[in-house]
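Hi all, long-time lurker, first post. I run a small reading group and we've been trying to get comfortable going from sequence to structure in the token notation. Rather than ask abstract questions, I figured I'd post a concrete chain and ask someone more experienced to write out its structure so we can walk through it together at our next meeting. Sequence below, copied exactly:
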Amino acid sequence: MKLLPLILLFWLADIAHGADLPTQFELEYTLKGTIGRGKASQTFSIEQREGVRHYQIKSEVRASGLLSLVKSGSIVLHSTGTIHQGNLQPVLFTDQRGGKPVREVAFDWQQQRIVYRRKGREMIERLPNNTQDRLSFMYHFMFAGVPQTAFSIHETDHRRLQSARYAVSEEILATPIGKFASIVLTRQPTPDDPRPKKLWLAKDYFLLPLRIIYMENSGIEVDQLISSIRYNPDGHMQRLVTHAADR
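-- Answer (accepted) --
Happy to help. Here is the structure in token form:
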């Protein structure tokens, strides 16, 4: 795999998780699974305001196949919040599918409550410490690091809050833009939620999400594999990997 110039690689190797990060990443993925063929994209950005670091994540999934038959348009997710004590702390998570109304999840950390808003109704639950939403979970480890052994974490989508346990392993992941040493997080199934979920994080590149396998509540399987990484180490966007791996 042809990578960045050698001097930049040394710079990357010296970066601690969450320290001296570029302020924007743009990731593109190819899709497969019962969702059908298609593309997905994610943007992750950091902004400093009044001494507080704020983050914003946007994810968009556009697919053919089964998804296009049951849902019109794309699936668009947003997560916004702050970076607090080495963790992402979500403030608002939204989920919109096609022309349907937006579903919202608000995080009230002072009152320790989480508020679900959909179909004109509100549902309130207690908010455990370090809860992550569906998007912030994927970038949380960029700041907190990955535990070396299995761990539990509270996470939520637009419907419900749950405690999930993840196994931790490592493998070399082959992608259209090369091979990456990756840390693999595999959610352990439970009777309440047997749906598969697996996340590959780039071990040497800011713990960026390289591959995501999950199942929608509707039973549609989604497999996202990285196809492009762009970021701004000096204020200008550039590709992290520019050529596919040699076969």
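A couple of things your group might point at:
The radius of gyration is 18 Å.
The mean pLDDT is 85.
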